[in-house]
Structure formats: structure tokens, C-alpha cells
């Protein structure tokens, strides 16, 4: 029986050979990476992503080497300086010691000859010691002869040696250049010339440098660029910023960190026992120390975390690329309690901006062309999408154009002082009356807004125009004098008394200085302040002294100019603890057609109505306001009485008298007394006799005509006319001037 044969045991799994191609680490090892941005990829994995990452890295390295080579050309190691040094070294070798000695002998001999000639001239004209001077001159002549002989001998010897060396050095170059020219014409000669220059550059590669030149070379070799670009590495940019802050601005740093973004760089700075005021005051110098940064673009943010901590933003060419379009919101999809989440803008990093507007008043300030209307429309887009807000718009400066297509989703758009006064009176009545409902409705200390009991938001555009219209006033029939509309006073009272009732306001204007808003200083006390591009005085009045040094630099923003947007719709926001740092935001944008579509869509979905409990507080109804606004919008503003009632009555007086060419003031007053006896009857005026009563009535009529025409920008002055054909001229109120006011004349409006 044969002995059993032991079969070999199978090798363990972990000892089996791995099949496949082995890639060594050397294949993936590249040149040193001081910037530290080389992507790490497992050498055993060759994936498309890995190849793309390596290709991008190699491309960056190539661009860096090209930038370094270009920067080196401005130093002593540049190509042109090396060529000149190499040529000088070649020429020095060709001349050699013999040539240098011959040149020195020739110079010495020439100097001796000149001295001998001067000695001979002095001896020829000398009166004293003539023999002694002649003997010295003869000795110099003999010495000069000897020097000339030595110089001539040295020169002949040097010429032979230099000619041999020059032939050895320059001969092959000349022969090669001539051969290249004969072989390939001009291009061959140029190629040979480039080779000659390259050889001269190689000979001049070594040089002695000073400490300043050595420092510049070290910066170039370290990769420190000479100009800022968004694509540079954070490490290199950090070196530039650190040098600018410490050496130029003399700031003591505790720590510095640079975060790169697609829009630019964000620099986090921790200072040592000092505040960022020194940096804020030296932003212009910082821009000068960072070549390539746009003028007026660097922004400083004083952090709320610590006084010695700030953030510096260095934006690139397109810093607002992360700001999205205005988000779409369906009709009645937002509630007032969640309106602080409705995005209306974003910062450079894309962080959203959503204003707290629940029982909160807002002030928007921006110079002309600063994008204030874009910001206002973004706010209105969020407001008109709510299910529990009544939106009242007032625009006495641009006829409601600032609201855009969203005016369709607003309950009222008042474009005349009378409409604005009625709307504000209605809002005031409800705002003051609602606190009496807090306890019966179980709301506590504030009005609880809901779809059944909505809030009211008054949006005012062009506030300075409203102030001017309010100051013009109207002619009061009861008091018989010009009365102010007091629209700004009603807005101030609304801001003070009605916030708890959720009757709030949003004010938009070109500034808060006295020449723009008169004495309406209450604007700066509103809890939410939005500052677009405006004057430095506006920033100081709204935020107070010292805020400019903390980075609230709305005065550095540039309004739009022509087709250049610049910083249009960019603003700083101060709104409690949520927005207490000077971070610039840009409003989200939507086209006019899109805003019009949203406005009509929300209007078709239905606008919320006032609750019955609140409606009882005012004799004015929301329906009356909406009807007047709709009539004005449909007729294009013609619903406003462009011709005052008094002027219409005077026109009836002229018609009753068969349209004479003119009337005296007393005749017009008499006609009005018959047409409107309650107002213009002679008995309604004081006087001891009839003459005094007529004089008082005429004076009142003259003042009334001036008062009712001033708000519409017209006037009716006295002029000469003929009361009848052939009669002399008298001075009074002419029919032709009246027809211009009523629109019957060629210049009527």
C-alpha cells in the first residue's frame, strides 16, 4: 500500500499576490508645494476626478512659475541684466591683463607728455630760476620719451594677444551667425542671435546683490506676488496683508486668518490691546499697499463678539455673484409672525437678509440712483405675499412708480395729499383704537395679527417730496386761510402710538438731514435702519458718532451711473441683535415683468379685508380708500382735481356774464356771493359798513385764489383788459389766464 502523499495546504488569502498594475509614488510626486494646496489623492487610484485635480494643480503651478519668472526680470537676475553682465565678462577676458597694462601705459605716457609740455612752457616764460626750470623740463621730456616707448611696445604686444583672444571668442559666433543667415536667411540669423544672447546670459548668471535686492529675490522665490488677484493662494495673500498692516498701518496683530471665497477674500483680524479704529481710518492706505485692489472697495466689519476682533473684506470684480434672484412667493403664503424669514437680499457670501417687520417700523435711506426703489420693491414683495397685512402705499413724488408692478397687490396707493391724508387718518384711527380691544379679545399687550384680524403697513416712498407737499397745504374753507396737510406729523404720530396695534410704516427717502426732511428727526429713532449709498452726515445722524470707525461706511458706496450699477441696491442694515454688525447686503432683484405678474397674481387671489372690530374706530372705510385709489390708477391720475373747486366756480361766474374779457376782483366776489352764498355772501365778512365788508371779501378771495393754485403749481395774476370794445384798459383778472388754468387755452394743463 503506497504511503499517503500530503497535499500542500492552500495559501492564506492574505498571502496571495495582488493582481494589477503597480504605481509607485514617484509617478505622483511633483515639485515642492510651499503654498500647501496640492490635492492629496491615493496613488493607487487613478480616477477622472484625480486626473482633473492634478491637472488643475499643475496648471496653477505653471502659472505661478510664469509669474515668478516675469517678476525676476525686474531684478538683477533678469535675462537682460545677465546678458549685459555676460558680455562685459567676455570683453574683460578678451582684453586680459595685457590689454589692461597697455591701456595703463598709454594713459601714463600721455599724462607724462602733457606734464612735460606744461613744464617747457613755464621754463620759457620764467624770469627767476630759469636754468633750474629748464633742466626740470628737459628731464620730464626724457621721461616722457621713455614712457612713450614702453607704451608703444606694450600696445603692440597687447594687440596681438587681444586679436588672438577675440578671434577665439567672437570668431565662432560670427561664423555661426553668417552660416545661419546663409542657410535660413533672416530667421536663421535671428535664431543664432538668440543663442548668442542665451550664452551671454549664462556667463552672467552670477552676481553680487545688496540686502534690498536679496530681500526682493527671496519674496519672489517664496511666491509672494506683486499684485493681488482673487485666484492667488490664501497663504500668499496673508503675507501681503500682514506686511501692510504691521509695517504700513503700524497695527499690532495678535492673530490673522484669511478665508478665500469666490467673491474675494475675508480677513479675520485679532488685534493686540487696540481697537480696529486705526484700520478703519487707514482703509485708503491699505488699498494702496495691496496693488490690484479696486479703490474704495475694501470693507471693515467691527465684530460684535469682541472689540479687538474685526473682519476685512477685499472683494473681487464680481462680489455679488452669490446674491440670488428675488425668491418667488405664492399669494398669501407668508404670515406676519414669519416675515423675518422671508429673504429680500443677501451678502457677498450668500447669507440671506430678512428684515424683522412684525410690529416694527423701518427707515430706508439712499441717495438718488442708490437702488433704494429696488430695496423697497424687495420688501414689498415679502409684504404683499402675506395673508394678514393691509398694504397702504403713499408716493407723492413719483406717482407710485417706485412700487412697480406690486402696486396691484397693494390695497391703496395714494398719489395726492388728500388721499394720503385720508389713508393716514384711517390708519391712525385704527392704531389708536385697537388697544381697547386687547383685553376683550384676550391678546395681552400687543395686537395678535391673523388673517381674520390683519395688521396695517403704510409704505411711504419719496419722503422728502411728502414733506414738501405737506408744507404747501391747502386753503381751509372753515378757517379761511392756508392749512398744512401735516402728513409728516401724522406719520410721526403713527410711529409713536400704533406699533403695538400692528399699524406700522416703512419710510423711504433720500436722506435724514434737515434740508431734506425738515424737523422730522424721529426717522433716526425707528428700530430698523437700512442705509444704502448716502452722505456721511446721514450715517452719523442715524447711527451716531464713532460708527464710521466701526465699519458702517455707507458713504463709501457708489450709486449707479448710467449703465454702470456700481453699488446700487447695496445697503447696511441695523436691526437689533440679528443685524448689529456692519455687513453690506444687496437686495434680490426681479424684472419689472416678473413683479407685474406677481402683483396681478396676488390681486387675483384676493386682498385681505379689515376686521369689523377695528373698522368701527374710523368714519373712513377701507373700501372708500380703495375705490379712490383705483379710480386714480385707472384714469392715470386724472381723478385728482387739477382744477380747484374755487377756480371752477369762478369760471361759472364768467360764463354767467357771457365770458367777458376780464373782471375786477369785486365783480368776481359778487358773482361768487350769488353762486355760493354760504361761503361768499357779503354778510359772512366782518366790517362796519358795506365798503369794508366788500374789501374784506375781496382780500379773502385774492388769498384763496393764490392758495388753491399753489399746490398745483399754477398762478393767476392780474393783467390789463378792455371791459367793452372801444373803452380804455383796466387791470383785473383776464379770461385768457383763467382758460389756461382750466385747460381751455392753448397752454392749459
Per CATH, the superfamily of the largest domain is: P-loop containing nucleotide triphosphate hydrolases
The level of helicity is 40-55%
Through-space gap between termini: 134 Å
Strand content: 5-15%
* Shape field: elongated
Strand order of the largest sheet: 6-5-16-15-14-7-13-10-8-9
So how many helices? 21
- What do we call the CATH topology of the largest domain? Rossmann fold
Q: Structural class of the secondary structure composition?
A: alpha/beta
Q: How many individual domains?
A: 5
Major sheet: 10 strands, mixed
- Total number of beta strands: 19
CATH class of the largest domain: Alpha Beta
Q: Outline the low-pLDDT stretches.
A: 20-29, 637-641
InterPro entries: FtsK_dom, P-loop_NTPase
GO molecular function, one term: ATP binding
Protein name: FtsK domain-containing protein
Report on the structure:
The protein folds into five domains: 20-69 and 209-223, no CATH class; 79-206; 225-315, Alpha-Beta Complex (Aspartate Aminotransferase, domain 1); 336-420 and 455-462 and 505-634, 3-Layer(aba) Sandwich (Rossmann fold), CATH 3.40.50.300; 645-742, Arc Repressor Mutant, subunit A (Orthogonal Bundle), CATH 1.10.10. It is elongated. The protein has helices at residues 48-72, 79-125, 130-203, 211-221, 234-248, 277-281, 283-289, 372-384, 417-433, 463-472, 487-497, 514-517, 536-543, 592-605, 612-615, 622-634, 645-656, 665-675, 677-680, 690-709, 735-742, and strands at residues 253-260, 264-271, 299-302, 309-315, 345-346, 352-353, 362-365, 389-395, 412-414, 455-461, 474-476, 481-483, 503-509, 528-531, 570-574, 584-587, 662-663, 719-721, 730-734. Mean pLDDT is 82; it is low at 20-29 and 637-641. It has 21 helices and 19 strands. With 749 residues, it is an alpha/beta fold. Helix content is 44%, strand content 12%. The strands form four sheets. A ten-stranded mixed sheet has the order 6-5-16-15-14-7-13-10-8-9. Strands 1-2-4-3 form a four-stranded antiparallel sheet, covered by helices on one side. It has a three-stranded antiparallel sheet with strand order 17-19-18. Helix 2 (79-125) packs antiparallel against helix 3, helix 17 (645-656) crosses helix 18 and helix 17 (645-656) packs across helix 21 (735-742). Residues 342-468 form the FtsK domain. Residues 1-10 have a biased composition (Acidic residues). Residues 28-38 have a biased composition (Basic and acidic residues). It comes from Streptomyces agglomeratus. InterPro entries: FtsK_dom (IPR002543), P-loop_NTPase (IPR027417).
